[in-house]
Every structure is written in C-alpha cells, then in structure tokens.
Amino acid sequence: MGAETTSDFHKHLSANKEWANTHADKHPDLLEKNSKGQSPSILWIGCSDSRVPETTILGGVPGDIFVHRNIANVLHPGDISATAVITYAVKYLKVKHICLCGHTLCGGVNAALGNDRLGLLDTWLLPIRRLRHQLAKEKGWKELSQEEQARKVVDENVKAGVRVLLENADVIDAIKERGLQVHGTVYNISKGLVEEIDCGEEGDEEKEVRLGAFGMN
C-alpha cells in the first residue's frame, strides 16, 4: 500500500476521533442510546456512490437510517442481500418508510447507456440496459441529450425498484398492517437535493391483482 494512500486513510481515522468528540458534545445521549440498540424509522436503498451519503444529506445522525447500497441502486427479487436487508428492516426493525433513491450523474447508469464491456458489471447492470432498450423504443428518445436520457433511465430504474418493493410479501403485510410507506426518490448531486418522483398510482383492480399474485398467508 502506497504512503499516500496510507496517509489518506489515517487522516480520516484521525478525523473520526474529532467527530466522536464533537458528536458527544452536540448529542450527549446519542452514543449511549445507540449502544443499547437501534430503531431507525427509514430504510434507505441507494447507490454506493461516495457522493450520496444518506445520513448526511437527510440531516440525520447515526441510528436514524438503516441502509442498503449497491452499484446504481439496482433492485431485483433474486438479490438475496437486498431481500435480507428489506426483511430485517421491515419485519424486525419495523421501519415506517422505505426510501429507494437514485441520483443524477450515476456512473452505473452512464455505463449502461454506453456499450463498453465491463466484465462482471455487465451482468449487474443488465436490468438498467433493459430499461435503456425499452426507453429507446419511445418516440423522441433520440432527440434527448445524453444528460436527459440518463435522467430518464435514473427515474425508470427507481420506479422499477419501487415495483419490486411492492411485490415483496413483508412489505405488502407492513403496508396493510401498519401503514408502511414506500418512496421513490432521486438525489440531485449538483443541487444537493432529494426529490420524490411520481412512481404511478395503482387503480383498485391493478392493486388487487398485485396483492393476489404476491401476497402470502
């Protein structure tokens, strides 16, 4: 490991000591409270991008938010890691909100809009490439700028993830039994703002069909 890399790591390690002291002064009961357990109100499912630190951008403190992050906030039913996090957060921590958050300037989305071979990442980004394929069939797609195309894919990726959440049996039960809310959001890196996007309202018949297919006893 290079000296510069080691120095950078130890700089952050030293900063942690300062953070702990400052936090103890600002929130004298927080660390003791967290040592006794956690009761976050939000499950955040987001991208691994270093520019999107959920607790910081939501103005929270440690213990506020339970977190799952991956490349490009891709969510699909076969992801055991994500499903385990969702189950634990919903069934045992009993979070009140699930926030699925995409973001602008997403490297994963930009990669899916390109055609370079990326090895293992190609498999992971396949759901986003499929979204790109679907959107490319729409009228006016070719007239969009690259930035506009990327934003459209970001939004559709969030909407797809919300649909996966609404097909999860534990989420379905929590919505019915205690009013769990599911939110689709996008973080604008340039502005520092999180916006909730319209993921579409279900009609009664559509909802009934979804619950019939994915609800479990």
Keywords:
217 residues, alpha/beta, 5-stranded mixed beta sheet, 10 helices, 5 strands, globular
Order of helices and strands: HHEHEHEHHHHHEEH
| Cα distance spanning the termini | 53 Å
**In terms of quaternary structure, what is this?**
single chain
What fraction of the residues are assigned to beta strands by DSSP? 5-15%
Going across the biggest sheet, name each strand in turn: 2-1-3-4-5
User: What's the helical proportion of residues?
Assistant: 40-55%
Weakly predicted, low-confidence segments: none
Characterization of the model:
There is one protein chain. The protein has 217 residues and is of the alpha/beta class. The chain has helices at 3-26, 30-34, 54-57, 80-92, 107-113, 120-124, 126-136, 146-166, 169-178, 204-214; strands at 42-47, 65-70, 97-103, 181-188, 193-196. A five-stranded mixed β-sheet has the order 2-1-3-4-5. Strand 1, helix 3 (54-57) and strand 2 form a beta-alpha-beta unit. The model has no long low-confidence stretch (mean pLDDT 94).
